[in-house]
Design brief:
This is SCP2 domain-containing protein. InterPro entries: SCP2_sterol-bd_dom_sf (IPR036527). With about 130 residues, the protein is an alpha+beta fold. It has a single domain, classed as Nonspecific Lipid-transfer Protein, Chain A. About 45% of the residues lie in helices and about 25% in strands. A hairpin with a 5-residue loop joins strand 1 and strand 2.
C-alpha cells in the first residue's frame, strides 16, 4: 500500500514540475522516455512518460517501456525509496543484491537520477 501511494505522489509531483518548473522542463527537452516502476510480481506498478510537453503518469503496466525498475516486493521498494532520498547508492546496492532488476535502457535511469534534485520540495525560508 505504501509503495502504491509513493508512486501516486511521485506521479503528481512529476506532472506538477512539468507544468510549473522551467529548469525541470529544460531537462525534458528531446526526451521521449517511458519509465516503469513495479514489483517483480507486476503489481503495484506505475509508468511515467517524459516528453518535452511534460510528464504523464498512469497506473498499471505499459506495453513498451523504455526502462523498467522491478523491485523484489512492495515493502522493499518503499524502504529503498526512503533510503534513496538520503543516499542514491540505495538503488545501486539493491541492483547488486539482485533485489532491483533494470530492464531496458539503463542510461535513462541515470538521467532520471539527475531529476532527483527537483522532486523533493524545497523548504521555505522563514521571513
Amino acid at each position: 500500500m505504501r509503495f502504491r501511494l509513493v508512486l501516486l505522489i511521485l506521479g503528481w509531483r512529476l506532472r506538477w514540475l512539468g507544468r510549473h518548473n522551467a529548469d525541470f522542463r529544460k531537462q525534458l527537452e528531446n526526451r521521449n522516455v517511458i519509465m516503469q516502476w513495479r514489483t517483480k510480481a507486476g503489481a503495484p506498478a506505475r509508468w511515467f512518460h517524459f516528453q518535452p510537453s511534460g510528464v504523464t503518469a498512469r497506473g498499471g503496466l505499459n506495453p513498451a517501456p523504455t526502462v523498467t525498475l522491478a523491485f523484489e516486493d512492495a515493502a522493499y521498494a518503499f524502504a529503498t525509496l526512503q533510503k534513496a532520498g538520503k543516499n542514491q547508492m540505495a538503488f545501486m546496492e539493491g541492483m547488486q543484491q539482485g533485489k532491483i532488476k533494470i530492464e531496458g535502457d539503463p542510461g535513462q535511469l541515470m538521467w532520471f537520477m539527475t531529476l532527483m534534485k527537483f522532486i523533493m520540495p524545497k523548504k521555505q525560508k522563514a521571513a
